[in-house]
Amino acid sequence: MWTKGDKAKPDAQLARIAARQHGLITRSQLADAGLLSSGIAVRLDSGRLHRIHRGVYAVGHAALGNEGRWLAAVLAHGAGAVLSHRSAAALWGIVSSSDLVEVTVPGGGGRARRSGIRLHRSQTLSPADVTLRSGIPVTRPTRTLDDLRRVLHATKFAAALRQAEFLRLPLGDLPTDHTRSELEARFLSLLRRRRLPQPEVNVPVDQFVVDFLGRAELLVVELYGWGAHRSRSAFEADRDRDARLKVLGYEVLRFTWRQVTGSSDAVAATVARLLIR
Questions:
Q1: Share of the chain above pLDDT 70, in %
Q2: Binning pLDDT at 50, 70 and 90, where does residue 77 land?
Q3: Please, which pLDDT band fits residue 6 given cuts at 50, 70 and 90?
Q4: CA 206 to CA 123: how far, in whole Å?
Q5: Spatial distance between the Cα atoms of 46 and 194, rounded to a whole number of angstroms
Q6: Bridge partners of 58?
Q7: Minimal CA–CA distance to 197: which of 178, 219, 227, 175?
Q8: How far apart are CA 184 and CA 66, in angstroms?
């Protein structure tokens, strides 16, 4: 007969496992810890276990964070399942997280659909496409971006690609214009439409990284929105930056979102005149 100390051992083991898995444990791990169905039922009734998906439980409480929700969805689909698409992008910091969790399983076999999970099946998913991040099996950034390109609107995908580049994640063969915001992308598009020379984008000049640089013309273009430049310290830093660039011989132009989107003719004309000069 088990003593009181013996009975406590499975719970201690569950706690150790859950600590490595964002508070989660699977039914097979419960069995490995020596718990039969009756023991699981007792812990469910007492609130020591909480069912998240079939065969996946939270230990102690069901208040999971994003990592817990993501891992629970992966564990629910068994070996080979990985976090993918928008959820993988959220884990990599490329897009914001959403309530729906996206998981990819290799092959085309049928698996039961589960609430709150969008299941993808892939014949091309290979071990080279998969890694661990925060203890969660997830598609690598290059595969994640490739998946995103198929499910996101072009504008949203461009924003995700910019964020991935900003985070210095590997992009594979995906082309990028090196912009870091939608405003920068719009300005670059404006120059293309007017067939103006294309500047270097987000490059170092002295101790700064400038948004756009016409190196031969010694022209710097900086773009800014009110949200990022409305403090006194930001205002002062911008003035110091402009003064230093002028000392180095650069002409500095600053345009706002409203100017680029609402007065594009005037913006293009100003840039063109300085380039011609």
A1: 92
A2: very high
A3: very low
A4: 49
A5: 69
A6: 24, 50
A7: 219
A8: 31
Residue 1 has pLDDT above 60, yes or no: no
- First-to-last alpha carbon distance for the chain, in angstroms, is 94
Give residue 107's pLDDT: 83
- Token pair listed for 114: 């589960």
Rg (CA), the chain: 26
Give the neighbor-by-neighbor strand order of the sheet with 56-59: 24-26, 56-59, 49-53
Residue for token pair 């600590």: 19
How far apart are the C-alpha atoms of 57 and 32, rounded to whole Å?
Answer: 15
Are 76 and 53 in contact, with CB atoms under 8 Å apart? yes
CA 4 to each of CA 1, 10, 45, 183, 240: distance values in angstroms, whole numbers, following the listed order: 10, 11, 20, 65, 70
Decide: 59 and 15 in contact? Cβ < 8 Å. yes
State pLDDT tens for residues 179-230.
888 888 889 889 988 889 889 988 999 989 999 999 989 999 999 865 555 5
Q: Which amino acid is at 237?
A: A
